[in-house]
Amino acid sequence: MNENNQNATSYQGEKKHYVAIDCIIFGFDGQKLKLLLIKRNFEPEKDKWSLMGGFVKENENLREGSERILNELTGLENVYLEQLFTYGEAQRDPVARTLSISYFALINIEDHDAGLTKSKNGEWFTFDEKPPLIFDHDKMVNKALAHLQYKAALHPLGFELLPEKFTIPQLQKLYEAIYDKELDRRNFSRKILSTGLLIDTGEKYEGGNTKKAMLYTLDKEKYGSQFNDFHYFTPKGFF
Amino acid sequence: MNENNQNATSYQGEKKHYVAIDCIIFGFDGQKLKLLLIKRNFEPEKDKWSLMGGFVKENENLREGSERILNELTGLENVYLEQLFTYGEAQRDPVARTLSISYFALINIEDHDAGLTKSKNGEWFTFDEKPPLIFDHDKMVNKALAHLQYKAALHPLGFELLPEKFTIPQLQKLYEAIYDKELDRRNFSRKILSTGLLIDTGEKYEGGNTKKAMLYTLDKEKYGSQFNDFHYFTPKGFF
DNA sequence: CCAAAAGTGTTTCCGTTACACCCATGG
DNA sequence: CCATGGGTGTAACGGAAACACTTTTGG
Fold first, then answer.
1. Which of A15, B21, B29, B205 has the highest local Cβ count within 10 Å?
2. Tens digits of per-residue pLDDT, A94-140?
3. What sign for the dihedral angle of Cα B194, B197, B203, B207?
4. Do the chains contact at A15 and B58, CB–CB below 8 Å?
5. CB within 8 Å: A8 and B239
6. Where in chain A is the domain with CATH 1.10.10.10?
7. Which part of chain A is CATH 3.90.79.10?
8. Which helix (H) or strand (E) holds B70?
9. Which residues touch strand D (CB under 7 A)?
10. Residue A37's closest CA among A128, A145, A120?
11. How much is the pTM?
């Protein structure tokens, strides 16, 4: 029955399964939170929309696989990537029983290789515009969004979605996009600055037609060490 | 190469993988937080300690599998069970490449079938006494403990580890065991009661040799609806 | 009646909120 | 010089922390 050669302690009575990885890729364009999807030009479910995914290779670590799949669509490396959940309903994939490990990616939308993405039929959608997805991919997206909202409230996660240098108003816009709610400008600013995670670059943002905002960078040192601390970036009773 | 019959849209070029489920089972004995492990009387790694686990069956949902495996060792059903993380380093299992999906279980230690557990070579350990485990199971345990600490700080999770009726001092002992820190009795009591999750049963705990504490039950209704709310059961700056 | 643990009350303090006010820029 | 958005300051409020005090029970 089994394709492998057996030895005394192998798992010969057990069944094997297809295992896929699907990536939920979030980006931010300065105004809205977006999701990167692909229009499938291959079977199954050709011409429908889905998450970017792929099968786990024979000798590939899961993290490597997720990085490979993300890279194939965006050209990016060293991206914020976190394993989220493994979907394993026996009937979730009508073609054949397949497990899917979902990975959650946050990218600065300006950094990705737009040509590569286009060549793979990738497209960015706001949540308003998002088409229905194949299989249980809508469920995956919902869980990932909930996770983003949950985690960004407690940990300095949002910075991953912004350019290297950013202003506090930009960061606020991002948080407002994540939670679809407005925040008080003055309190937000003080709360963010009080974390000590931001370094003033001395530069000012060029582009606004009013007072130019100060540009900050992340203090990578503190960011790493404080990442698992609690920060409460959202107002009390926010949820 | 592949054992299945193929059709036009099957995944014939892809590799399949063994997929296991391992359960990290937490219990509380009134004083200490404990972990349920098994001494393996089967290969591989016979006579060593490991988590309770098993392979995912051909047509079994993952949640069903985790419930089956937990039930085999404890006799319990309807237990708090949460999928945690999927371990998939290519070399994590020296016998054959195997993915392992870890599940996190919280049980009331009094409820389980001690005879069944014993017959499966199961044993409860405090974290002080825990032996080294096979493969990457120590890593799984550490991640599960971190998750318990994280989640119990924000959600009313601890109740799962206590009997149906419990006292506030018992609940406090549990939190102190989870975090290995002492809490202020008076503030803890007020904080817990302010959640409105506890119902006074009118009874008193029999067993202490001083003043008998009041017995409470969970308000299941509120528990369900508030489970995803933030509660902050631990003091500020606790971590 | 004493020790030990449980329950209730109170003051202090600090972080959050909800504001007002000032500053810089382009048209 | 004015509209718009960015930056800084502050009073009031509320929840948490740190206490003291009272009550119950067994020995």
1. B21
2. 999 999 999 999 999 999 999 999 999 999 999 999 999 999 999 99
3. negative
4. yes
5. no
6. 156-226
7. 18-153
8. helix B62-74
9. A 167-169, 185-186, 189-190, 208, 210-214; B 184, 186-187, 191, 194, 204, 209-212, 232, 235-236
10. A120
11. 0.93
Six token digits for residue B200:
């006074």
Structure tokens at A144: 């990932």
* Position B3 confidence tier, pLDDT thresholds 50, 70, 90: very low
**CA atoms of B237 and B156, how far apart (whole Å):** 19
What CATH number is given for A18-153 in this structure?
A: 3.90.79.10
Nucleotides of D under 7 A from a protein CB: 3-10, 16-20, 23-27
Amino acid making up residue B82: E
CA distance A199 to A219: 6
pLDDT at B114 over 80: yes
The pLDDT mean for chain A works out to 93
pLDDT confidence of B35, banded at 50, 70, 90? very high
Domain B156-226 sits in CATH 1.10.630.10: no
Chain B nearest CA to A145, separation (Å): 15
Kindly indicate the confidence band of residue B8, based on its pLDDT and cuts at 50, 70 and 90.
low
**Pick from B56, B80, B58: which is nearest to B69 by CA?**
B56
Is the link from the previous residue into A163 a cis peptide, with omega within 30 of 0?
Answer: no
Q: Which element (helix H / strand E) includes A226?
A: helix A220-226
